[in-house]
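Re-run with default settings, no changes from the original entry. Doing this only to confirm the output is reproducible before filing.
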Amino acid sequence: MVGNYLSIFLAFFSIVATLVPFSRHGGWYVRGFDFPKPHVVVVCITAIVLWVGQQPAAGAIYWSVIAALVTATAYNIFLVIQFTSIWRKQVADATVTDSAHSIKLLMSNVQMENTDHASVEALIREEDADVVLLCETDAKWVEAMRGVSTLYPHVIEQPQENFYGMMFLTRLPVEDINVRFLIDAETPSIHAVLRTNGGRRFVFIGLHPAPPLPGRGSELRDAELMVVAKETKDMSDPVIVAGDLNDVAWSHTTRKFKRISRMLDPRVGRGYLASFHADYWFARWPLDHLFHSNDFELEHLSLRPSVGSDHFPVSSTLQLIHGETRNDPQDIEKPSDMPEADEAIRLGIAEARL
């Protein structure tokens, strides 16, 4: 009897968890279903096994549920399998390493309440990256990083006590660096025009938009991502966008961001690098992202060990390529993308005014 009820519940949950994200509603109770796709795959498969084992194999309802569960399983697998080695790589492995145009990036959401400043400082020293982006830095974090920030000639500090502070450090030649508030006055972003050591110019954008939470939808996050997507769409310079986007790689919003901006995701064909939550192995999703234009190939991409935060740091090295890359962009902009982006920006601005 228990198995019978459980099979019904899991079948119902699997179908609902698959269908709800198709809604474009920004409520946290809707957008929350975007995140656990790998877990939904497991639930879907379990639901099929239980349904077959517990329900009589007869009637339209039985076969309709089987069809719905198989479809849901296939769809969710399609979304997440792209971030495994089974899928073809979107960004090619760099075959030639030219240190003059190699860019090493370290990004970490340090978690504002985290007091393990020493681990973050040690990681920055160990990685010795060309560009460092830290999220959730308040005044205490800025002060704690003084010892390591002095190693970098260009430092931008935007301490905030609302979990959206940022620090940006680079040793690369700088043409311009700005802190911008794209949608609301509480959420900064970093916009920099840099040059490789070999003199080639590129744009770096560091983001940490507000997540959907109880009492707040995804409107601010979605609007910020769409603003950046539209701004970077036709940039003539190579572009890197990185940070804690508070969204998963397979969500409708992030996939739309990629299509509009024409950005590539080096995790496709490699692994989705579940950077959050560092404390719970059974509930981890890729919230910390690295996207770039079709001007780079990948030398290295990995999660780094925990530094006491609820996010794992992400280390990467990109090679800025002369001429054609061997990348496979895969994503094509849809006719509905720009109207949806404009609507998302309108809703985000309206939400920021409340």
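The chain has two domains: 2-81, 99-348. Residues 60-81 form the longest helix (22 residues).
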